Amino acid sequence: MKRRHQRTALALLTAAGTLGGAVPVTAASAAAVAATGTVATGGTPLNARSGPSTTSSRTGTLDNGATVSIVCRIAGQFISGTVTNTGYWDRLADDSYVSDAYIRRSDAEIPKCSTTTPMPAVTGSWLLPVTAGLVSGFRTRQRPAHDGVDLGATRNTPIRSASAGTVIRVVCNVSRGTCDTDGDSTLRGCGWYVEVLHAGNVVTRYCHMVRRPSVSVGQRVARGSILGYVGTSGASSGPHLHFEVHVGVPATSANAISPIAFMRARGLTIR
Which of 48, 99, 162, 185 is least surrounded by Cβ atoms within 10 Å, i.e. has the fewest? Predict the structure, then answer.
């Protein structure tokens, strides 16, 4: 078996066995593909993680034999795998990572991952779930029942847990049809959404995801763990993240508070 000590990749998963199904290949992502590969673990699922190390939180699994489309590589923890021994990792289109030690692929040149992608602002134990501007505020005069803020992130932007906690809800919420298609303003509901319970009975809610979230109820998540990806499912007229903060369990309209004020108190600015 050929050793590839100096190879790694950022990968776009294109087969079943990923976080609830295949990840669609968009025109933008397809143009960046450098090579294809196959998960080769000998039979067990391959863990996908939030960073290039086994200490990073697990975001999902890939089945043995799943096909990956490789985009770029990044240095990380050294792994002795079934294909090779390497310190390079493959980053997936959803910004999760797998060790290149378990990916069988061609010898095509793989570029290094760019480090210029903006990351959400972080202060202390909290961060902003996406890097995006405010497009609709909390309980404005125009939308007095709007219990969160809308952040204008683009489709498929990773949505990150604002702090460490436990996933308590993973829900498809739409008045008709399915959350697996784009919604519109005639519908009601948050589409695909996740709630995370944090210390002090604070709950954060993340709405309108593009597909089934990447986490499951009961899962512990670290600050910055990927919960899902920005979309426009449910009552939504375009891709964005609807983000709520609640001070109580269960999360209700009565205990919703302004995410802008909450984050400001923690040194983070939504604007």
Answer: 185
- Contact (Cβ atoms closer than 8 angstroms) between residue 88 and residue 97: no
pLDDT digits (tens, 9 = 90+) for 149-189: 999 999 989 999 999 999 999 999 999 999 999 999 999 99
On average, the pLDDT of the chain sits at: 82
Q: In the numeric block, which tokens belong to residue 175?
A: 């008045």
Gap between the Cα atoms of 87 and 108, Å rounded: 18
pLDDT at position 98 is 83
Q: How many helices (H) and strands (E) does the chain have?
A: 2, 21
Note whether 163 and 263 are within 8 A (CB): no
CA-nearest of 155, 136, 156 to 146 is: 136
Structure tokens at 143: 């939308």
Distance from C-alpha of 54 to C-alpha of 84, rounded to nearest angstrom: 17
pLDDT at 10: 32
* Sole residue written with tokens 């961060």: 127
CA gap 139, 53 in Å, rounded:
41
Read off the amino acid at residue 3: R
Give dist(CA 11, CA 67) in Å, integer: 10
Distance of CA 52 to the CA centre of its chain: 15
Nearest to 14 by CA among 70, 78, 84, 88: 70
Domains of the chain are: 10-105 (2.30.30.40), 122-264 (2.70.70.10)
From 161, 145, 174, select the one nearest 202 (Cα to Cα). Answer: 161
